[in-house]
# Entry
Amino acid sequence: MSVPVGRSPVMADVARLAGVSHQTVSRVLNGHPNVRTETQARVQAAIEELGYRRNSSARALVTRRTGVIGVVAFDTTHYGPAQTLSGIEHAARADGYFLSVVTLQTVTRQAVSEAMDYLAQQSVEGYIVIAPKRAVVEGLAGQPADRPVVAVEGGEAPDLPVACVDQEGGGYLATRHLLDQGHRTVHHIAGPDDWLESEGRIAGWRRALAEAGAPVPEPLYGDWRPRSGYRIGAQLAGDPDVSALFVANDQMALGALRALGEAGVRVPDDVSVIGFDDIPESEFFTPPLTTVAQDFSEVGRRGIELLIDMLEAPAESTSLHPARSVVPARLVARVSTAPARA
Amino acid sequence: MSVPVGRSPVMADVARLAGVSHQTVSRVLNGHPNVRTETQARVQAAIEELGYRRNSSARALVTRRTGVIGVVAFDTTHYGPAQTLSGIEHAARADGYFLSVVTLQTVTRQAVSEAMDYLAQQSVEGYIVIAPKRAVVEGLAGQPADRPVVAVEGGEAPDLPVACVDQEGGGYLATRHLLDQGHRTVHHIAGPDDWLESEGRIAGWRRALAEAGAPVPEPLYGDWRPRSGYRIGAQLAGDPDVSALFVANDQMALGALRALGEAGVRVPDDVSVIGFDDIPESEFFTPPLTTVAQDFSEVGRRGIELLIDMLEAPAESTSLHPARSVVPARLVARVSTAPARA
DNA sequence: GGCAACATTGTTAGCGCTAACATTCGTCCC
DNA sequence: GGGACGAATGTTAGCGCTAACAATGTTGCC
# Structure
C-alpha cells in the first residue's frame, strides 16, 4: 500500500487516505490558516506514507507561476562568470526559485535573444543576463519586455536594472595604489574595448592619472587571455618609460609577468604589476600578484534580489528609475608592486 | 489586434484567428501529418501575428514530460567542473532539453540527496550528478531510483551509468612520461583521498611505477588548492631523492613550483614537475607546466547522451550493465619536465 | 436559547493543452 | 453508383492542481 504500483500518487490519493477532500490537502500543502491541527497531521502522515509530491506543472498551470528564473551566461569556464553564476544560484534557491541556465559561446545580441527565446519556451518568470558587452546591454534594453530582466555586470546600462562591481572604482584603486608608490605614471593593458569591464577599468585608470596630473599613455588592448598579456608584456618589456603596469585581469597579468621575466625585467624591482580579479592562483604567481578583488557571488546575489523584487512587487514604477546595485572592489596587496626606484 | 491586451494568447485565440479548431493548431505545432499545407500556413501566420507561445505547464501536465534535466554540481568555480557543466548544458540544449542546476558547497551524501529532492519538486525527468567522491556515488546508487541518474566524474561507480575521464590512464601517462625521461622514481602530490579523481590518478601512478620496477614513495595528500601544493612542495624541496614530481592538479602544481623556486630548486633542471587538468594558466606558469589535459566538455556531452538514452529508450535492461563512457586523457608536454640529470 | 460571526471542510469550475474518438469529405475501384 | 478507405478536421474528456464559492460545524454573547 505504501508503494502504489503504476502511477505516482496524486492529491486525490492523499485525500482518500487521510479521509479529507483533495482541497484540504492543497490547503495543508500551501500553509493556509484554518485547517485543524489534527487534520493537518493526518494529511501530513498520508503524504509521507504515499511519498506524495505535488505536480509542479499542474500547479504552475493554475497559479501562472513557474518559479523558474532564466539565466543567460557566457564564458562560465572563467573564474569570474562562474563565481557569479554560483552566487545567482544560491540566492535563487534560498528564495525557492529554480534556475534554468543557457551558456553562450559568442557574446552577440542575436545569440542572447535566441537564448532568451529558448528560455521563454520554458515559461521562465524573468531573466538574469550576464551582459559584459555594451552591444548586449543595449540590445537587451530595446527588447519588448514581457517579463522582467536584470543585467549582471552590465556596467552603466541605460534603462535596465543592473547589479555589478564598481569597475571604475576598481581601476582607480589599482592605479592610485601604484601612483602612491611614487611611480610617475601607470601603463595599462586593457581588456577588449567592447567589454564594459574594460571600459570601466580604463575610466578609473584615467581618472586616477588625471587627478595626479600624470601623463596618460595609450592603453594596449588584450583579449583577457594569458597569451595576449604575454604578447603585450613582451612589447612593453623593452620600454624604459614603463615602471608600473596595471593589467585588466589576472590571466593577462600572468602572461605579462612571464614576458617580463623572460626579458630579464624584474618584478617588482624594475616594474610593478597589478592585476584584477584575484583568481585563486594569483597568490602563487611569480611573484605573488597584487590585484583587485571582486565579490562575484555578492553580485550574483544582488542580481537575484533585484529580479525577485520585480517579480514579487505589484508591477509599478519600475521603469522610472531602474535599480542599480554596485558592489565595491577591494585592493589585495601582495608582492608584485613596490615603490618606484629613486 | 496584433498586441492583445490583458492576457497572453492561448491556442484557442490562434485557432479563432486562423479559422480552425484548437486541435488543428496543436497538430501544426507538433508536426503531425495530415494537415493540409494551406491550413498549416494559415495557422503559422496566426501564431506569428499573435506572438503565440505554447504554455509549457499545460503541455507538461498532459504529456507527463517536462523536458527538464536536473544537474547537481559542485565547485563550479573551478575550471574542470565549470567546463563540464558547460558541456552538459550545450549537449542538453542541442537535444531540446532544459537544465535546472543546483550547485553545492559541501560534497556530502546528504547535501546531494537534498539537492535531488529540491529538483524533484520541479519534476525533472532525470539527473546528472557530478559526483567526485566515493561516498556520493555510493549514496547515489543506494537511492530509490524513480528516475534515471547519470554520474559524471564518478570513477568506477558500481551500479550507475557513468561518464568520466580515464583518471587512471592519465596518472599512468604522467608517471610514464617522467620515467621515460630517466627518472629513478616519481613522487606524487595527490588530491584528498576520498576523491575518485585522486584515487584514479594514484592508481595509474602506482601502475606505472610497478611496471618499471621503480620504488613507490608514500603519496602526499593536498586539498587541490595552490596553498597545499605550496606547503607540500616546501617539504619536498629539501629531499635529494626527489627528482620527478607528479602533482594531481595544476593549481597545486603552481603552489609546488613556487615553493621549489623559493627553496632554490630549479625546475626542470633539478626537479621535473608535471600537473593535471591543463587549465588555461598552466602554459604561462614559471616554467610553463607539462600536464595532462582532460576533455571536460566531452565528458559533459557523454553524460547527457547517456541520460537521454535512458529517458528515451523504452525502459528496459538498463540495470543489467550500466553504461560507462570513458574519455581518454592526453599528455601536454611543456617546459617543466626534462630528462633526469646523469 | 437563538443568532451572528467565524472556523473548518467540501464542491465545483476551470487553467491550456494533447489524446482519443467522431465526423466529414474526397477518391478509388469493382 | 455505392461502399470502403484514408485524409483532414472537429469534438470531447481529461491531466492534477488552486480559487471561489457553498455548506457545514462551533463558538460567544445578549
User: Anything to note?
Assistant: Chain B touches chain A through 52 residues (CB under 8 Å). The radius of gyration of chain B is 26 Å. The CA atoms of residues 110 and 249 of chain B lie 27 Å apart.
